[in-house]
Write a sequence for this structure.
């Protein structure tokens, strides 16, 4: 646990760039690197090791994870999934090297509870050897970026209003 005030907002791009749409979170993080974000919002390209890329988490007010999430929805569909809800289901949601439950347990020990984590999940079309996104996911990349930024900005606004 840390004594640092929780005020940092992090967008964590997760995925494997070698498996097509599985790398969507990394593609989003790279796209965000080209955009000027409000102060206090940090984008981290985590690849397949989000817990290591994130480091200590006690000062995070909100964590927005962008990753491929297999659902029954159409390819490229974008979902907002609060980690606190996902963690209480039987869904097998993986953050690559860790299951969501394992990552949440690790982060909880460091002072970041599931109620401060949101997953922006994207339904993949193709998870196969490729460094390119499918046309469906590529077409929705601006929407995915906007959704993650809006989630982060909402937290920054809430944090700034309470000060």
């Amino acid at each position: 646990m840390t004594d640092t005030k929780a005020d940092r907002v992090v967008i964590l791009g997760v995925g494997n760039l070698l498996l097509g749409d599985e790398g969507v979170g990394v593609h989003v993080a790279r796209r965000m690197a080209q955009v000027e974000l409000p102060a206090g919002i940090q984008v981290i390209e985590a690849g397949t090791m989000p817990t290591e890329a994130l480091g200590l988490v006690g000062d995070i007010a909100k964590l927005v994870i962008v990753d491929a999430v297999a659902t029954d929805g159409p390819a490229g569909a974008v979902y907002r999934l609060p980690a606190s809800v996902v963690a209480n289901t039987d869904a097998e949601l993986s953050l690559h090297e860790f299951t969501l439950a394992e990552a949440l347990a690790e982060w909880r020990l460091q002072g970041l509870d599931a109620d401060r984590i949101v997953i922006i999940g994207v339904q993949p079309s193709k998870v196969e050897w490729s460094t390119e996104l499918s046309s469906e996911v590529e077409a929705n990349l601006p929407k995915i970026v906007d959704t993650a930024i809006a989630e982060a900005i909402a937290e920054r606004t809430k944090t700034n209003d309470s000060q």
